[in-house]
Amino acid sequence: MKPSESIDPAPHEPNRVCDVVVVGGGPIGIETAIEMRRNGIDAVVFEAGPLGHTISWWAPQTRWFSSNDRISIAGVPLNTIDQAKASREEYLTYLRSVVDQFRVPVETFSKVDKIEARPDDPRRWQVRVRSKWIEASAVVLAIGGTDHPNRLNVPGEDLPHVDGYLREAHHYHGRRVLIVGGRNSAVEAAIRLHRVGAKVTLSYHREELPETSIKYWLRPEIDGLIRSKAIEALFESRVTAITPERVDLDQILPDGRHHTLHMHFDDVLTLIGYEQDKTLFKQLGIRMEDPGGKPIYDDETMETELPGVYVAGTAVGGTQSSKYQVFLENCHVHAVKITKHLLEYGIGSRNTEAKTQAKPSASPELNRQIEMNPES
Ligand SMILES: Cc1cc2nc3c(=O)[nH]c(=O)nc-3n(C[C@H](O)[C@H](O)[C@H](O)COP(=O)(O)OP(=O)(O)OC[C@H]3O[C@@H](n4cnc5c(N)ncnc54)[C@H](O)[C@@H]3O)c2cc1C
């Protein structure tokens, strides 16, 4: 062999082998794994944060706007004590129960940071999690589309009193809060913080709040609060700088002139949407298209242009910047499409252990005891 010829790198020694690695333990990642395991496909879920990470960072007691039957997964009814739309807490409880009930193997706080084809077999995938390698016939990227808050890109936005997430509302009692944004998250935060006794100012870059796309039950309330000046609204304004002492805003007046406002706030919440983490798409060379860098995939099978690499859930929508088109609500079908394609390809159906585990069990606690003491 000539010195210039490269030696094919050896495949990584896998710590674990399974049929499918599902990246992301949100509702759709979990639903996909259950659908696969019901069909005898040994699917394992790796989640970067806690189970249902995206929902876990919503402010306490935030409610879904979708009705419960549309956000329930795997055919398990989602009921709330008062028949209202589920809150963050109710949904996370539900998600834990579903995972326990179907004994879905989920490893939380396990970020997938590398995926590559086996050098000697491009149809097999090697996935790195916490420095260990897992080998699988297929990978499902159910990574969601809201990895981190959008940035204003102004000086001072990393100061400690500036936050891209609404936290526990109680924290803001008696404080002067600037909320930047004019869509659901910002409007909902403005109303909630006003109710807990914060002095709220809303800065939005357009002339008025969007005509559509604000939850119908929030709209009359925010309009009323702005009209009565209980919430101060600075339309056509943009934050230009933040310091510990003040926030500078540029506002366009009705006559078209710009003027600069210098205002003091205790907290600044930049609720201007969220961005997808594209690291894995880029690493794998998955082609993306605008708007939002949506991954390109086959709508029939959810397979990307890489054989054996699928996308599921809101991950397919890329970064959804204005009106959201892809929700949990309209993603349930992804689990079925991918499973069907894998079965056609001959993956799964023979794995009786996965199939048995995916059957709803009488008591998750009993299952745990049986696993710990198989003799009992
Ligand atoms: C305040 C608020 C209210 C909402 N209300 C609704 C609603 O009423 N109805 C609705 O349909 N949608 C709603 N949404 C959107 C909702 O969050 C999504 O529809 C839902 O979470 C999508 O589920 P998913 O499984 O596709 O993605 P996600 O729930 O985002 O799950 C993706 C998961 O992948 C994990 N992940 C990402 N990268 C990696 C990696 N490299 N390794 C391991 N894990 C990784 C993430 O940590 C995350 O847990 C709302 C969003 C917000 C912010």
UniProtKB/TrEMBL annotation:
<dbReference type="GO" id="GO:0016491">
    <property type="term" value="F:oxidoreductase activity"/>
</dbReference>
<keyword id="KW-0285">Flavoprotein</keyword>
<keyword id="KW-0560">Oxidoreductase</keyword>
<dbReference type="InterPro" id="IPR036188">
    <property type="entry name" value="FAD/NAD-bd_sf"/>
</dbReference>
<dbReference type="InterPro" id="IPR050097">
    <property type="entry name" value="Ferredoxin-NADP_redctase_2"/>
</dbReference>
<feature type="compositionally biased region" description="Polar residues">
    <location>
        <begin position="352"/>
        <end position="366"/>
    </location>
</feature>
<protein>
    <submittedName>
        <fullName>Thioredoxin reductase</fullName>
    </submittedName>
</protein>
<dbReference type="Pfam" id="PF13738">
    <property type="entry name" value="Pyr_redox_3"/>
</dbReference>
<feature type="region of interest" description="Disordered">
    <location>
        <begin position="352"/>
        <end position="376"/>
    </location>
</feature>
